[in-house]
Amino acid sequence: MQARGVTLAEADQVLAGDLTGVTWPLLAAILSSCGALQADIQVAHDLFDQLQQRTPPPAGVTDPDLRPQPDPALDPAVEGWVQGWRPSSAPRGSFSTSRTGTASAEDPIEAGLEEETGRVAPPVNFAAEPWPTCGETTPANRASTAPSETTSETTASLGGEHGPGDDHADTSDATLSGPVGQPPTAGSGPANSTTTRGTTAPPVPEAATNPKEFVALMDQYRTYRDRSLREIEREARRHPQVERPYSFASYSTIGKNGKLPRQLLVIAFIAGCGGSRSYIDRWVEVHRRLSLEQVDSPWSPGSPET
């Protein structure tokens, strides 16, 4: 099993059914390396969000990302789901790998070898080989996650989510694609942007030229912020700029009908992802522009929802 950025100890912990302190990106990486289908990963994500909702944060902790994960042994649904990844031929607890990397003597593979050949299989020591990872990051990629002084200077001049001239601009969320209000250039749509998770720049809403690209940029911003739909729902309900809070179901249907989402839904979505007031205003302005382009043909696909 190969998983990006997953250590042997973390993989052993998850395979043993212990989700304490495990984050969703870590769990998703392990599931992908096990060959899980995208639909199965989505079901696991929803279940993971429900567990976070049911687990109260410890005293003094307000950030939902810092809450401890529930003990799978106390939740039959989670325990059964985790146990489903174990070989069906092995009884529960019959084999495991220790945190030191040595396989136990009860491993069913070793037991079958002993029965077939009559000799005792030597212990397997995983510590002799490094844990492989998929797509190991290069020094250049690692450097991109830590903004340099040059990036900070460029950020201050261009504004990022907060726009130019904002004294309270968050330099960690700066956009390097152009100043606010500049018309998008040819080839600047979502397919050519580099606003994915792990970069220092959020999506540029002005790059959207149609409802499909607008929705794609919204999804890119959610990925950039690493927010689940449950977290967006919770954060939007207490955001001062959100006039109407929406439910989890409303956020999950964005873009499904090929139309431009409602403006209030866009505001709630961006606010729930942690967008600043000026960044939300930019999304609203682009939404107005795309809506006006549909006035001549209000019944055409992509016209804004009513």
Summarize the structure.
With 306 residues, this protein is an all-alpha fold.
Structure description:
The chain is an all-alpha fold. It folds into 2 domains: 8-128, no CATH class; 147-293, no CATH class. The chain is built from 12 helices and no strands. The radius of gyration is 24 Å and the shape is elongated.
Secondary-structure topology with pairs:
Blueprint: H1 8-15, H2 24-33, H3 38-54, H4 76-83, H5 108-117, H6 139-144, H7 149-158, H8 211-225, H9 229-237, H10 248-252, H11 263-272, H12 277-293
What's the helix-strand series?
Answer: HHHHHHHHHHHH
Report mean pLDDT, rounded to a whole number: 66
Radius of gyration of CA atoms, rounded to a whole number: 24 Å
Q: How many discrete structural domains?
A: 2
